[in-house]
Specification:
Helix content: 55-70%
Shape: extended
Distance between the termini: 93 Å
Strand content: under 5%
Order of helices and strands: HHHHHHHHHHHHH
Number of strands: 0
Radius of gyration: 53 Å
Structural class: mainly alpha
Largest sheet: none
Length: 436
């Protein structure tokens, strides 16, 4: 067996060597055949055009494009199924004459749009030469007989001006510069603007200052202004105290005493209940009572009682229904009174809303700021009584040279514009503090 395996392996190696030798001889013969030929035989210049695969693919692509173009043109003039359904619906609703009238109206509207577009485009283009200079002509070509000249534009761009535009009116008193065409707005935009103007609340450009804020105010007016400033500061102090106050101050003494007393009572009651339960379990025994079997007479009696209860219940329900039917007029009065109260309440709410909407924006800016954010609200710019005294000691006030400036004009204008919704104020986000 070993000799037979060795002979098979030798035969296999001989076959592989023979195949490799044949491949090497074939490659060597092919190289010799190509190398022995001349350059004229190997490289040939094709001077006659012959149809190839690339040219055939280009021709197929061109024919497909042409067919697609014809199909698109055909689809353009043919109606789809959806359009046919819409046409049938219009004919059914309006008839033939009505459909024709609608088509004419649409065509007229489209023509009007085109005319407006053309007129606006023509109005925006200059129709005159501002500098009174000849239009620039394109340079003549030497080969004018063979090539056609391009058409010159209708209005050429003027060259850099040599005359100031401001002097044109002085030189020509009849000169009327063309007005720019007004922007065309749609009906929807016009309605929206009218509605916004009608719903816009009134605004105060500049709020008149309080008489007590003058440099020589009346004593009564000055005290009123001091009162307003004091109310703003009091509100600020209350807000600061509320913010600094902790959420919980702990349990009060009364609550702690109640909790201690209740714990003692619960302990004593628990001990008593445990003693009683032990005594009961030791003395009492649980007796299980057997359910007795009812006789036929008892069962019949139960059925009669149940039937009588059902009849009484139905009679009671019928009586309640008749009572409700008899009291319909009372219920109607209650409903009408409730509807009247609701109407009056709705009218009162609408009146309050209209009054609030009628209040002009930019009024009582300082009070509104104090009510919204009392901590960051600026103080009311008013001078104190001691600051208004003159050099002579009179409380009537001094002059403008001795007055102490209060407030800031920039802050005043900024807060007024914010109140009138002209600008938006940057929102401040404070630190988030979690107390635990």
């Amino acid at each position: 067996s070993s000799c037979r395996c060795a002979s098979l392996r030798a035969k296999k190696r001989a076959n592989e060597a023979h195949l490799q030798l044949e491949q090497a001889l074939a490659e060597q013969g092919e190289q010799h055949r190509v190398q022995s030929k001349k350059d004229e035989d190997l490289f040939v210049l094709d001077t006659h055009r012959k149809e190839t695969a690339a040219s055939r693919s280009k021709a197929l692509e061109a024919s497909r494009r042409a067919s697609n173009k014809e199909a698109s043109k055909k689809r353009k003039y043919e109606h789809s199924e959806r359009e046919m359904r819409q046409i049938q619906k219009v004919l059914k609703n309006h008839g033939r004459e009505g459909a024709i009238a609608l088509a004419e109206k649409g065509r007229a509207r489209l023509e009007g749009k085109k005319v407006r577009k053309l007129t606006s485009a023509a109005a925006s283009k200059p129709t005159f030469n501002l500098w009174d200079q000849p239009l620039s002509q394109p340079p003549s070509s030497a080969k004018g007989d063979k090539k056609k000249l391009r058409k010159s534009p209708s209005v050429a761009r003027p060259s850099p001006p040599t005359l100031a535009a401001a002097n044109v009116a002085s030189l020509d008193p009849d000169f009327d510069p063309p007005a720019q065409p007004a922007a065309k707005l749609s009906n929807k935009q016009l309605k929206a603007r009218k509605r916004a103007e009608a719903d816009a609340p009134p605004r105060l450009a500049v709020e008149v200052a309080h008489p007590g804020q003058s440099y020589r105010p009346d004593e009564e007016h000055h005290q009123d202004a001091i009162g307003e400033a004091l109310s703003i500061e009091i509100r600020r102090n209350e807000a600061v105290e509320y913010k600094a106050k902790p959420i919980s101050e702990g349990m009060s003494a009364f609550t702690r005493e109640c909790i201690v007393d209740s714990d003692e009572e619960e302990d004593s009651s628990d001990e008593e209940e445990e003693d009683n339960n032990n005594m009961d379990s030791a003395t009492e025994t649980k007796i299980i009572k057997r359910k007795e079997k009812l006789t036929r007479a008892q069962r019949n009696k139960q059925k009669r009682v149940k039937a009588e209860q059902t009849l009484l219940k139905e009679r009671r329900q019928r009586k309640q229904f008749l009572h409700q039917a008899n009291e319909v007029h009372l219920t109607n009065k209650v409903v009408k009174r409730d509807e009247k109260d609701n109407r009056e309440r709705q009218l009162e709410i609408a009146k309050l809303k209209s009054e609030k909407r009628a209040q002009p924006l930019g009024k009582d800016v300082w009070s509104a700021l104090s009510a919204k954010d009392p901590i960051r609200a600026p103080a009311l710019p008013v001078a104190l009584t001691a600051e208004l005294k003159s050099k002579d000691g009179n409380a009537g006030g001094g002059g403008l040279r001795t007055v102490t400036p209060k407030g800031s004009l920039v802050t005043d204008r900024l807060e007024s514009m914010v109140a009138r919704n002209m600008i938006s104020k940057k929102k401040r986000e404070g630190r988030r503090i979690v107390q635990g």
